[in-house]
Design goal:
heterotrimer; A alpha+beta; B alpha/beta; C mainly alpha; A: alpha+beta; three-stranded antiparallel sheet; 6 helices; elongated; B: alpha/beta; TIM Barrel; two-stranded antiparallel ribbon; DUF692 domain-containing protein (chain B); MbnB/TglH/ChrH (chain B); Xyl_isomerase-like_sf (chain B); transmembrane helix (chain C)
Chain lengths: ~150, ~280, ~300
């Protein structure tokens, strides 16, 4: 079955990582599918990360699509998390999204490779100008960037 | 499914976002839930439990088994699917004729299979693996695709027919997909309807879509267009399916608009209104 | 060997603890009677703002109205965290809705709404009706319940005095220190417990909330489908967090606090609802609620 397996792997790579469109497939139609998929992923991430999406307003789908074009989905929770961290590192995280990220950083342990798991101990994190603290499961925001 | 099961009429895809609306449909007897969104153990969402208590048939609809993948289906996913089917006491389950991952990468999307005998073999083998764990019938749904593979050996009707024949599966016919594919390929949707084994249709999906840059996208987030409703009429005139359901997945409109779409499906199929 | 104030340590401690327990029990019994509410009263026929008041007082009632007005497209946010009118006032609104809508025309900030005289008087009207029906605890009843704080304060004063006197008298005071701390905690508990709903209302609210579970933020309810009343009821039952689900940008601009509705199952801490991803984050077999979702192609 290696023929089918190779065909499928090449198609998924082209769709999610910017690989070459497999020979014989209509380029324009493939591109339409690729863009539609990115838009759909943006919508799913917006559900998990409402403030991240809201902070970008009408530019959200574009911002996400640019970032996600060469990154296969790790699930909407992790995709949004990775993007928020990238933006924070570039000082480009909107203020409302910084609060959302900080609150999750203190509530969850996420190493960027595995699924996030809830923290057992207390935590204090500052990111993108927001500061949050978590104590036995309760989260407080100490500072909101303006 | 034995002899002639009683028809369910018009149904709807249950989604948490519109659970309150679905619960309020007095005549509802058929609904579908995304299998991956239901926990195998633990409490069911209250809105879904209410439907079950009322005797509404709820069918689990898998979206991530990847039955068309070249590799065997993930046994863990099949176990979950089976557990959900049992929890819902479902008379059947459904999945897609598609693949969603390959080479260890998730596509996050239902992708079309090349219409080849090798692909038929892959689907049939995976359906067999699923049926080993799930005692109830499985219905397979052909998808809408924006692009086709080169060098295909079978027509769409042959491809679907062969898979159903060899796997013993039922057909979940998405009438909006029939419309989308025909429109994007420039073919006649009625021709496909006439070639499909309509006596094997377990139920039917009806969904909305929109055109972007000359291509019709099966979005599930737009209104059901009139040509799709017309196809419901054509299908019902040939062989009325036991159930037809509205499939909406986002940008949910006001309740009145959903009600109107359900009624339009009822009118087109000749079933009583459920609203 | 002189007993401080002529009473032995163990005897005094016994009296002190007995007095503390008596205050706690009497206060509890008194509260039970005060907050019972009218038998047979139910929340089933209440509007969203009334439900909101019972769950979170004036502030949640205001938030609930904001949710309804926002869902109807009547209000938005302007510069400097102010509210603005963004559309006509829908038909069939409550006095609180109109008061907030009018305040929006004057560019009042969300956090100053309760201070607006028209809003305040609409809230008073709302409150009065609920108190008459035996669903809301009145300010008078709350004051009466808090009278027991005086007993607690008296205990603290006596306890502190005894500790000082005992220490000066070279007596062991450790147990007395603990007992005084106990009195302090008791007083704080009496002071802090603010409530709006009577016991009858709370019981009725439990069923009501279960029936309206579809409005819980964890379901990402479609407020477009449920309409303005559904949006207002979502906030009433599930707190400020529901406004963030409905319209995150508006809620953030309007500086809506994520206050929880009391007795709710929202687990409303001041912040994160990261829990929304919890049940699915680790499981391989959890793909979100829809077979498709979002704009763009779906294909299923």
């Amino acid at each position: 079955m290696s023929g089918l397996a190779d065909q499928q792997a090449a198609l998924v790579a082209a769709l999610t990582s910017g690989g070459a469109v497999p020979a014989g497939i209509d380029g324009a139609r493939f591109e339409a599918a690729r863009v539609a998929l990115l838009r759909k992923r943006a919508g799913e991430v917006a559900r998990q990360w409402p403030m991240l999406a809201a902070g970008h307003g009408t530019r959200w789908k574009l911002t996400f699509a640019e970032w996600a074009a060469t990154r296969p989905s790790q699930g909407s929770l992790r995709d949004g998390w990775d993007l928020a961290r990238d933006l924070a590192a570039r000082d480009a995280l909107p203020a409302v999204a910084a609060v959302e990220l900080a609150e999750r950083e203190v509530a969850w342990h996420y190493n960027g490779r595995n699924a996030p798991s809830s923290r057992r101990g207390p935590a204090l994190r500052a990111t993108g100008g927001a500061v949050a603290v978590q104590l036995s499961g309760r989260v407080w925001t100490l500072r909101r960037p303006s | 499914m034995a002899d002639t099961p009683p028809p369910y009429g018009v149904g709807i895809g249950w989604r948490p976002e519109i659970a309150g609306f679905v619960e309020g449909l007095p005549g509802l007897r058929f609904a579908e839930v995304v299998a991956e969104s239901v926990h195998a153990h633990g409490e069911l969402p209250p809105g879904l439990q209410v439907l079950l208590d009322r005797g509404v048939t709820v069918v689990p609809h898998g979206v991530r088994l990847s039955l068309g993948g070249a590799e065997p289906v993930d046994p863990e996913r099949v176990t979950h699917f089976a557990a959900v089917a049992e929890r819902l006491d479902a008379p059947l389950v459904s999945e897609h004729i598609a693949f969603v991952r390959a080479g260890g990468v998730e596509a996050g999307h239902l992708l079309p299979l090349p219409r080849t005998r090798e692909a038929v073999d892959a689907v049939v083998a995976n359906v067999r693996r699923v049926r080993e764990q799930i005692p109830v019938p499985i219905a397979l749904e052909p998808i809408a695709a924006l692009f086709d593979w080169p060098d295909e050996e079978l027509t769409e009707a042959q491809f679907i027919g062969e898979i159903l024949d060899r796997s013993g599966a039922l057909l979940l016919l998405d009438i909006a997909n029939v419309y989308a594919n025909a429109r994007n390929r420039g073919t006649d949707p009625l021709e496909l309807l006439d070639q499909l084994p309509l006596d094997r249709v377990a139920y039917v999906h009806v969904a909305g879509g929109a055109e972007h840059q000359g291509l019709y996208h099966d979005t599930h987030t737009d209104a059901v267009p009139q040509p799709v409703l017309d196809l419901v009429g054509e299908l019902s005139a040939r062989q009325r399916p036991p159930a037809l359901m509205l499939e909406r997945d986002g940008d949910y409109p006001p309740a009145a608009a959903l009600t109107a779409e359900l009624d339009a499906i009822a009118r087109a199929s000749g079933y009583p209104s459920v609203t | 060997m002189n007993d401080t104030w002529g009473i032995s340590g163990p005897t005094f401690l016994t009296y002190f603890i007995t007095a503390g327990l008596a205050i706690a029990i009497l206060a509890a019994v008194h509260r039970k009677a005060l907050f019972r509410g009218t038998r047979g009263a139910t929340v089933d026929n209440l509007g969203p703002q009334q439900v909101a008041y019972l769950n979170g007082g004036d502030r949640l009632a205001v938030y609930s109205a904001l949710g309804g007005l926002r869902a109807a497209g009547a209000i938005g946010t302007g510069s400097g965290r102010t509210l603005v009118q963004s559309g006509p006032l829908p038909a069939g609104v409550t006095p609180l809705d109109s008061a907030i809508y009018n305040a929006a025309a004057r560019g009042v900030r969300t956090r100053d709404l309760q201070g607006d005289q028209w809003v305040a008087s609409a809230l008073e009207q709302l409150r009065d009706g609920l108190e008459r029906n035996g669903l809301a605890v009145s300010a008078g009843q709350m004051r009466e319940a808090r009278l027991w704080i005086i007993g607690g304060l008296a205990l603290i004063v006596v306890g502190v005095a005894r500790v000082i006197a005992g220490a000066n008298n070279d007596k062991p005071v450790l147990f007395m220190v603990f007992a005084t701390i106990g009195a302090f905690v008791l007083t704080l508990t009496l002071l802090r417990s603010r409530r709006w709903a009577t016991d009858v209302a709370n019981r009725s609210m439990r069923d009501f909330r279960y029936k309206h579970n579809y409005l819980a933020p964890s379901n990402s309810p479609s407020y477009a489908t449920y309409g303005a009343t559904g949006a207002a009821m979502g906030v009433a039952l599930y707190g400020g967090a529901a406004l963030y689900t409905m319209d995150p940008a508006f809620a953030a601009e309007a500086e809506v606090q994520r206050i929880a509705a009391t007795g709710g199952a929202t687990g409303g801490s001041s912040g994160g609802d990261a829990g929304s991803g919890s049940s699915c984050s680790s499981s391989s077999s959890c793909g979100g609620g829809s077979s498709c979702g979002g704009g763009g192609g779906c294909g299923g």
